[in-house]
Amino acid sequence: MALSWGGRRKLLYAAVAAVFGFAVMFGIYRTFFTAVPTCRDGAQNGRESGVDCGGDCALLCQAEARAPVVLWVRAMSGGEGAYTAAAYVQNQNAGAYAPDVHYAFQLFDGNNLLVAQESRTGCTRAKAISPRSGLPVSC
């Protein structure tokens, strides 16, 4: 049985109204009844590896973070009681910056006695170490 021209037109209008109604109802449902997981909600949801870290979040989980590696260290005497120390530190984390690197230099003499000690506050301030790259540090 074929529909008349008027019947087809009514069916088309009903289908358009149904699609529009479904779209409106779906929008209302998504807006008021679903919570979008975020990286700052204090819960492990979405594709996060831990609570607000890993996965889609920019913050690297502490369990996944790898410690920086010291590739080389050099110490030179600059005269009576003066020393210069330098090191090259590499960030082993792919895709994660190391924004606040804490470090300390300890210089020992031939008898393994501490000659000088300096922490980051007295040294050249380190900037962020980019992923898979290094940073020279001196004191």
From TrEMBL:
It comes from the Bacteria. It comes from Candidatus Adlerbacteria bacterium GW2011_GWB1_54_7. The chain crosses the membrane at residues 12-32. This is Sushi domain-containing protein / SCR repeat-containing protein. Keywords: Membrane, Transmembrane, Transmembrane helix.
